Amino acid sequence: MKKFIVAILGIAAFMACSNTTNNAEQFADNPMQETVHEGEILLKKNCYVCHHPTRETGRIAPPMQYVKGHYIKEGTTEEEFTRAFVSFILHPTKLKARMPGAIANFGLMPQQAFPEETLKKIADYIYNNQIEGPGDFEEHKKK
Ligand code: HEC
Questions:
Q1: CB of 137 closer than 6 A to ligand 1?
Q2: What is the chain's Cα-based Rg?
Q3: pLDDT given at position 56
Q4: Ligand 1 atom 9 nearest Cα
């Protein structure tokens, strides 16, 4: 019986050790894993072509920072935001739109085939992080 317990402890200790090495290796392989949100990568790849944060000339859509400002007010929950945001992008209509000024300037956002999962990851990133942009949304609102 004693031998058996020693053997179990031995295996447990071995597993604990090999686990730590595994984690350490994974982290070394991908040091950015903890810091870059998948939604950020997807946002830059799929949306910044039009919703570029700072481009002044040849702008074809409002910066995403402004979009966020129109969609997230005080008390807007992540669930409410995600539902409205994803729903608009899947099927943009004037009825759903919250940025009539942007529609007047740029026309309604063209419908594109973004997977819903992609949009949810982007929504998660936007809701939970500061979005880069011209940085003067408060000023912009006053205009
Ligand atoms: C081909 C250009 C283009 C691309 C790519 C694009 N958009 Fe847009 N989007 C627009 C334009 C133009 C508007 C402004 C007119 C409007 O509000 O419909 C807009 C507006 C929006 C709005 C606000 C709509 C409103 O009025 O309430 C949201 C939300 C949005 N885009 C999300 C996204 C997201 C997320 C992506 C990437 C997955 C994306 N867009 C990619 C052109 C684009």
A1: no
A2: 23
A3: 82
A4: 109
First to last CA, the chain: 80
How many other CB atoms sit within 10 Å of the CB of residue 89?
A: 20
User: Atom 39, ligand 1: which residue's CA is nearest?
Assistant: 47
- For ligand 1, whether the C-beta of 100 sits within 6 Å is no
Tens of pLDDT, residues 10-50:
444 444 544 444 444 445 555 555 689 999 999 999 999 99
Q: Which ligand 1 atom is the nearest neighbour of the CA of 114?
A: 38
88 Cβ inside 6 Å of ligand 1: yes
Q: Are 132 and 53 in contact (CB under 8 A)?
A: yes
CB contact at 8 A, 23 and 111: no
Closest CA to 86 of 48, 40, 111, 120: 120
Cα 109 to ligand 1 centroid, rounded to whole Å: 5
* pLDDT tens track for 41-82: 999 999 999 999 998 888 999 999 999 999 999 999 999 999
